[in-house]
Give the backbone structure.
Amino acid sequence: MVALKTLYKVELVKGRVEKQVMREIEIQTHLRHPHILQLLTYFHDNKRIYLVLEFAARGELYKELKRQPNERFNEHLSAKYTYQVADALEYCHKNNVIHRDIKPENLLLTYNGDIKLADFGWSVHAPSNKRDTLCGTLDYLPPEMVMGQSYDIYVDHWCLGILCYEFLTGQPPFLSGSTQETYAKIRAINIQWPEQIKPGAKDLISKVTFMLYV
């Protein structure tokens, strides 16, 4: 069984994301890892592009998170999912790919409950040069992007730590009422540590995410 993702060419042109989609296809076609959603093939007609993808039976991890008691995962599941995403990212980085949009909505679950990293729409192949494009999801943006600085693979490390925090608490650490307030919290690395984040998890998140900024 496979999944079929349909993209309408007129919408891609309107959004000026044609090159972004072609880059996504090129990158994801060449990635082969147990925790990365496989792009099997693609084809197109006059109006649409069709992506034939590996099927992830249980869908978005975000929806699974929202179904949990208090809308957060326990430590066991948080550790499992964080490890599997880290494993996928290590493979990406060894192949000079930066994902740049790690978040629960871009993670899928197989029938057996394993992670599949998906949606490489913001990914880039960057073997040496640093990047400077502002992209990704507001609550997961690293300080470099917020401050308009260049960055490298460590933006994915930042997102991994934010992801682990959201697994354990149900929301990202810099969630605010406005974009500017979120930016300010990210620049200051203004983070609160609720009691459900135990010392071991706090140490992991701090080392993965914040070590470069202190």
The two ends are 47 Å apart (CA to CA).
